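ok so i was messing around last nite and threw this chain in just to see what happens. nothing serious, just curious
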Amino acid sequence: MLYLASKNHLITLEQLLKQCQLWSDTPPSASALASNAPFACDTMTFEQWLQFIFIPKMTELIYRQHPLPSSMAIAPMAEQLWQGMAQRQSVINHLRAFDALLNQQ
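result:
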């Protein structure tokens, strides 16, 4: 049940990023993807991190049925970065719901 709900959250997240024109057709460089900084904030934008790191890693965990994070807090980063950007509120709200889903397991 948790895997299916998480998979659905990832699908919706992708759709919302596309609707908000935050989806990129060009992946970051290999060195940008190798960042060790939280949210790869030193090499890419938050939306790039969601698209190119978070969604693929979570998809892999779900596919392999590995344990999912039980303490996730992605929404606060989105809230801080996108403060006052009403057009991104749907993504923030969705990340809050995803955080809540994984934090209640």
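not much to say yet. DSSP finds five helices and no strands in the chain.
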